[in-house]
């Protein structure tokens, strides 16, 4: 990868790092796991970046890679995530802007979302990010109709969890 591509990747990743933090929050329950998953998603994005053709928005592509990485690791049901060493200081992302205390108000919603399966979590995450059903279906690789049906079922499931 050339220097211009590296700079473009770092710039886009810095501008969109909250996407990764939100994915990490869905699939981890503590700060160390969050940081490990953040690093692993960043590495997978870096590895996949040379194949990013720009057919979709960077954010759509980052959601897809991030969610696939998180779901793959989540399905392995391991407490500690195996991560790939990433030594370059130039590409290391800081999470200084992410404030864990501010998330206290979202605990109830996240607790309910924790009860969903991995695909349902990904779908509700994209929905809460105000993605339209076209982008949700592209990101998850399902039909738009299927995304709508699943979302209606998830909404009902969350209502039952939050209001027993």
C-alpha geometry: globular
CATH topology of the largest domain: Rna Polymerase Sigma Factor, Chain: A
Q: What's the number of extended β-strand segments?
A: 0
Strand fraction equals under 5%
CATH superfamily of the largest domain: RNA polymerase sigma factor, region 2, helix turn helix motif
Name the CATH architecture of the largest domain: Orthogonal Bundle
The CATH class of the largest domain, by name, is Mainly Alpha
Going by helix content, strand content and strand pairing, the class is mainly alpha
Runs with pLDDT <50, length 5+? 86-92
| Mean pLDDT value | 80
Radius of gyration: 16 Å
Query: What percent of the residues sit in helical stretches (DSSP H or I)?
Result: 55-70%
GO molecular function: DNA binding; sigma factor activity
Domain RNA polymerase sigma-70 region: 14-79
Keywords: Sigma factor, Transcription, Transcription regulation
Protein name: RNA polymerase ECF-type sigma factor
Overall description:
The chain is mostly helical. It is built from 8 helices and no strands. It has helices at 3-15, 17-27, 31-48, 58-75, 107-114, 118-128, 133-140, 144-162. The longest helix is centred in the C-terminal third of the chain and has 19 residues, at 144-162. The termini are far apart.
